[in-house]
Design a protein that fits this description.
five-stranded mixed sheet, 11 helices, 10 strands, Trna Endonuclease, Chain: A, domain 1, Restriction endonuclease type IV Mrr domain-containing protein
């Protein structure tokens, strides 16, 4: 067997604009909505990129993304960027994210987060170059491959969107890597308990099945997030059959949930609010739902061994 060494990416070899393009393309691929790329205009006001991070289990979050393509991220630079963003016409952000090319120490992360809170920004996330590379390999391996091989990314945001949604040249491995993103969600990972917080659980399962079948990935509200490869894009008959099995296993999760609602083994907490996301679940039903979701995730993992999502 030949041992293959995956060497780290040297982001320092690329220009600031190239790094921003990759960060923007990644967040497109990761399913963020309403992405705007201010860095390309030359007047970013502390906001290279701004977009909406989509969540299953809590409200979506508008986040400013700053691309730190420099030897190190300093506290003064981070404070200046966050303070500038507070004055931007897009309004004061509640979340800020730094994507760096370099390492960031634990002490520096703590100082930057504390500075953010002092400025009134409660959520500050910081990715080092190694962490960004890990996320790229997990969610957008084909973008990283194109980037490292010197394939020029388009300049305009709309052209980048089309570039990110280009599937014809993908291998099955790359396509499965993109499909994995729709399975990496709380509705498929959070264990069922006697009292479970299940916001739009059935809708999340419906959306996952639709995405695997059609490539249409949507928010809970029905807005399109991104296009992904569907099972019909896969070249291998075995892989197509495998994703077909994942879909059937997810349909069993949906069936079990609906049956539980019908027979009373899953019911609202009793607060009287029909939209309350808190449910009471009998132990045997919780076990069956956990097992059914685990089976679907395990089947996908057999097709894509790097997939590490499981019922926690």
């Amino acid at each position: 067997m030949v041992n293959i060494t995956v060497r780290p990416v040297h982001f320092e070899d690329f220009s600031g604009v190239e790094f921003e393009r990759l960060v923007f393309a990644f967040h497109l691929r990761a399913g963020w909505g309403d992405l705007a790329w201010y860095g390309q205009t030359g007047s970013d006001l502390g906001r290279d990129i701004i977009g909406t991070e989509i969540f299953d289990d809590r409200p979506n979050q508008i986040t400013v993304i700053q691309c730190a393509n420099r030897v190190s991220l300093s506290l003064s630079k981070a404070e200046r960027d966050m303070a500038l963003a507070l004055t931007a016409p897009t309004g004061a952000p509640v979340a800020f994210k730094f994507v760096c090319r370099s390492a960031v120490s634990a002490n520096m992360r703590d100082q930057i987060r504390a500075a953010g809170k002092d400025l009134g920004i409660p959520h500050v996330e910081i990715w080092s170059g190694a962490e960004f590379e890990e996320q790229l390999r997990l969610r957008a391996e084909f973008l990283l491959k194109r980037f490292v091989e010197g394939i020029v990314f388009p300049d305009a945001a709309d052209e980048l969107r089309r570039f990110v949604d280009d599937f014809p040249d993908l291998t099955d491995e790359e396509a499965l890597g993109l499909m994995a993103a729709v399975l990496d969600r709380p509705a498929l990972q959070t264990p069922f308990l006697h009292e479970s917080y299940l916001p739009a659980f059935q809708r999340a399962i419906d959306d996952t099945i639709r995405a695997l079948n059609t490539g249409l990935w949507q928010t809970r509200e029905g807005a399109e997030i991104r296009r992904i490869p569907s099972r019909h894009h896969l070249k291998s008959e075995a892989n197509r059959a495998g994703i077909g099995r994942v879909v059937r296993e997810l349909d069993e999760v949906r069936r079990l949930f609906k049956h539980g609602l019908a027979d009373g083994s899953i019911q609202h907490c009793g607060c009287g609010d029909p939209n309350c996301p808190t449910f009471l679940v009998r132990p045997e039903t919780a076990h069956a739902l956990d097992a059914a979701r685990g089976a679907a995730l395990s089947t996908f993992r057999s097709l894509s061994p790097g997939f590490n999502v499981e019922v926690r």
